[in-house]
């Protein structure tokens, strides 16, 4: 006679053997899960990385480009024998402010990108200068810089004319402005150091005003 059908034992008892459709469903489930994990990871990476790689939304585009080691050295050279509080306009990941704090300055960085500000605060704490290196989320056009005697800016050509006017109105005679990558269009620098992308220009407000008729 015909042999009896053999049943497979399942955890809950006896049942029929799984057909080809069950394997297909299982494969689809794993495919959906893998797609969800990969997609979620990409979204998370994009959310964290995008603020570091693209400029914040603002009228004048000021992208984040990390300062080179040589640029930092040139900025510190221009601060030699200087005193008073320092501000970095568009402080990025905080490396200029942290370097100034290590030189004994009370240094502040203003940056519109919140991710960079939080990262800068973390770096300052890691370097042990969190008491003298502070970072704030702010649009540079909404900040008054009159309380600072040392101003550092990594700008772009489109913003320099307007920033030149703002700083000349707000800063006192004993202030020094240090421009990196791009000089101010109408000011004549008192000191220049470095070359190429690492060039740094220093402008003393007393000298600038003394040249005016």
General description of the model:
The chain has 213 residues and is of the alpha/beta class. The protein has two domains: 28-57; 69-211, Vaccinia Virus protein VP39 (Rossmann fold), CATH 3.40.50.150. 39% of the residues lie in helices and 18% in strands. It has six helices and nine strands. Strand 6 (150-154), helix 5 (160-170) and strand 7 (176-180) form a beta-alpha-beta unit. The longest helix has 34 residues, at 20-53. It is globular, with a radius of gyration of 29 Å.
Please give a quick description of this structure.
With 213 residues, the protein is of the alpha/beta class.
Beta-strand portion reads: 15-25%
Average residue pLDDT: 81
CATH fold group of the largest domain: Rossmann fold
Largest sheet: 7 strands, mixed
* String of helices and strands: EEHHEHEHEEHEEEH
Distance between the termini: 120 Å
> So what's the CATH class of the largest domain?
Alpha Beta
For the biggest β-sheet, the strand order reads 5-4-3-6-7-9-8
Q: Nearest-angstrom radius of gyration?
A: 29 Å
> Structurally, how many domains make up the residues?
2
Q: Total strand count, please?
A: 9
Q: Which class of secondary structure composition applies to the elements?
A: alpha/beta
Q: From the 3D coordinates, which CATH architecture of the largest domain would you assign?
A: 3-Layer(aba) Sandwich
The low-confidence parts are 2-16, 38-61
Helical proportion?
25-40%
DSSP summary: helix tally: 6
Bulk shape? globular
Subcellular location: Mitochondrion membrane
GO cellular component, one term: mitochondrial membrane
Main location: mitochondrion
Organism: Crocuta crocuta (Spotted hyena)
């Amino acid at each position: 006679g015909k042999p009896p059908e053999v049943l497979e034992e399942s955890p809950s008892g006896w049942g029929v053997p799984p057909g080809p459709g069950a394997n297909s469903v299982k494969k689809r489930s794993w495919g959906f899960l893998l797609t969800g994990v990969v997609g979620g990871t990409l979204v998370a990476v994009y959310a964290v990385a995008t603020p570091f790689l693209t400029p914040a939304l603002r009228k004048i585009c000021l992208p984040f480009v990390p300062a080179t080691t040589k640029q930092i050295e040139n900025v510190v050279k221009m601060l030699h024998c200087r005193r008073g509080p320092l501000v970095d306009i568009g402080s990025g990941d905080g490396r200029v402010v942290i370097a100034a704090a290590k030189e004994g300055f009370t240094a502040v960085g203003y940056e519109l990108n919140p991710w960079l500000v939080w990262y800068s605060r973390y770096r300052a704490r890691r370097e042990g200068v969190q008491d003298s290196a502070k970072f704030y989320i702010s649009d540079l056009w909404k900040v008054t810089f009159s309380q600072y005697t040392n101003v550092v800016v990594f700008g772009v050509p489109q913003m320099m004319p307007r920033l030149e006017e703002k700083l000349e109105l707000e800063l006192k005679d004993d202030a020094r402005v240090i421009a990196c990558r791009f000089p101010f269009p109408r000011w004549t620098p008192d000191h220049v150091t470095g070359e190429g992308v690492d060039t740094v220009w220093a402008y003393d407000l007393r000298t600038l005003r003394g040249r005016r008729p």
